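Technical annex B. To support the medicinal chemistry partners, we prepared a structural model of the target in complex with S-adenosylmethionine, based solely on the information shown next.
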Amino acid sequence: MSTVTTQTPLEQLKVAQQRIWSSGDYNRIAAITVPVAETLVDIAGPRPGDAVLDVATGTGHVALAAARRGAEAIGLDYVPELVAIARDRATAEVLDVTFLEGDAEALPFPDASFDQVLSAIGVMFVADHQRAASELVRVTRPGGRIALASWTPTGFVGQMLTTVGAHVPPPAVAQPPTRWGNEQVVRELLGDGATDVKSTTSSVTQRFASAEAFADLFLTYYGPTHTAASRLSDTGRAALREDLVALADTSNRSGDGTVVCDWEYLVLTATRREDG
Ligand SMILES: C[S@@+](CC[C@H](N)C(=O)[O-])C[C@H]1O[C@@H](n2cnc3c(N)ncnc32)[C@H](O)[C@@H]1O
């Protein structure tokens, strides 16, 4: 007798999102968040020997930055191709980092395993926000630290995701990733197990040869824009490209024909409650 397993809408969304992050070629643009990861790790301040988890590590920026400080770092992501690149980067730098394929919504670690649990522009992209937030708290040891960097709703990437959603509406069950860029929302997601929640906004400067070069780079390599474009007709794709060009033009502060723009993100830190 065959067994039929029924996926919930959020499980279906996760499968679709995993495909999205596997599409395009995220590694071609992953460098855009290197300064974000460095800032996050500076703020979290892991010490040599600390056990650090980088959730949704992608090509490994945060785990590698933590390992350079002597932390015992693990990076986890559900896209095998990105995990393989992260491993190659660790090998190239002769850094002892463990990279695992896994799901941020079901972390394969016992409770209280880590001194620090970090994520840069990562956990914000899960399907089930509450499950992932509860997992962050669960695997952090009492007194340990959670630190997250997330694009804000009104910053450049927040506007870009809204623009994409206007052309290809997200499934009804999907919550906007940029809600992780709002301190109050994350405070509620982390719940009573977290205390001492603080946040600060910062921005990372991006440079492109032109607004068109930005749009084409993202339409080709960035999973969310690449997948949206693949679902549109030629006319629809051209309209999306036009809106992305307009967004880059509006945000541009270069004045010399190239594009220089500042992408805002929130860094939130919290402490795992000792008695929670
Ligand atoms: C914008 S990328 C950022 C990657 C990396 N943190 C960085 O700063 O370059 C978002 C990452 O989240 C990962 N991701 C999203 N949902 C996930 C989940 N449920 N489990 C594991 N990884 C997930 C994607 O595979 C992707 O690598």
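Notes passed to the chemistry partners:
The domain at 9-153+171-203+265-272 is CATH 3.40.50.150 (Rossmann fold).
The first strand starts at residue 51 and ends at 55.
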